[in-house]
Specification:
- With about 160 residues, this protein is mainly beta.
- The chain is about 5% helix and about 40% strand.
- The protein contains 2 helices and 11 strands.
- It has helices at about 10, 155; strands at about 1-10, 20-25, 30-40, 50-55, 70-75, 80, 90, 95-100, 105-110, 110-115, 120-125.
- The chain has a 5-stranded antiparallel sheet.
- Strand 7 (about 90) and strand 8 (about 95-100) form a beta hairpin.
- The longest helix has 4 residues, at about 10.
- The protein is elongated.
């Protein structure tokens, strides 16, 4: 059996053949594991969506013609996620500020990944031990002296 998953253009380009998908029929509680076996090379001009075909082993709980929700796992990365307010951009690209020695602001050019409601993934440019300026970075310049106020860990989890 197969499911044809309609995906936004920007999501479709991240997929590759063999990626795993969890398929849950509408109204059901059981998920079934499948794999992507075909990705359409065509994007619908009206909807800006394309199709990925997911193959599933036969199971009587799967009904041809039914609808389902699908979660597709396409590669994983372990990277920091910062709030949108922490990431700035200019003609040189994306960057964040950190508080360095003597409480002076330091610029770090970064490469960003996925952007979601939970923040922006930073793929490269940080070591991981920096004290990042989370807000008001637009009002700073490298070398400015600041008085840092450390954020509570639960404030970052939003």
């Amino acid at each position: 059996m197969e499911i044809r998953a309609q995906l936004a253009e920007q999501d479709l380009v991240r997929l590759k053949l063999g990626d795993t998908a969890q398929v849950t029929p509408i109204g059901g509680r059981t998920s079934f594991t499948g794999t992507i076996w075909q990705i359409s090379p065509i994007i619908d001009a009206q909807t800006r969506q394309g199709t990925a075909r997911i193959q599933l082993a036969y199971n009587p709980a799967l009904r041809p013609g039914g609808f389902a929700s699908t979660t597709i796992t396409s590669g994983r990365v372990s990277a920091p996620r910062l709030p949108e307010s922490a990431v700035q951009s200019d003609e040189k690209g994306s960057f964040v500020y950190s508080v360095g020695k003597d409480n002076k602001v330091v610029r770090h050019d970064v490469k960003v990944g996925d952007i979601s409601d939970t923040g922006i993934v930073i793929l490269s440019g940080l070591r991981g031990d920096e004290k990042i300026v989370l807000s008001a970075g637009a009002f700073l310049n490298p070398g400015d002296k600041v008085t840092p106020e450390l954020a509570k860990p639960d404030a970052l989890a939003r």
